[in-house]
Amino acid sequence: MREVDQKGAQVDDEEDTTIQIDWTFSTGDKRGKTESRRWLYFQDGAAFRLSSKSSSKVLGRYSSNGDVAAILSPFGKGWVANVGPHPEADETWCKSSPGDISRTIKSKRLNRPADEEAEITNPEGVRNDIGRDLVQALVSASK
Q: How many CB atoms lie within 10 A of CB 106?
């Protein structure tokens, strides 16, 4: 389901933006710690509903309403990670200069005309610790 359609969602349209989530780290020196209200890039991402019998592990929730934003779920003989916001987004997904090659690539990826500049900022700066934790959690679960 779409997060923008949920009660209490931080955003109510499909525009690319940043959104706050509460992330519980699964690996590294932050393992078991939840960081609240972390900003991540968001493009009309999903929210996940889990049954009471689900064996999925919740990694992140949308800060404004507690909807599930990221999960690890068993699938066949392995695991799959699903995430609504984009923890892999780097600075090229946000602001860029006219003529910058990364801007052209980004524009194609976001279905944005090449001459339209992104005006999205991440208030805490682009950090990669959540993306790294997501990948490491998936790899660890698959072992």
A: 22
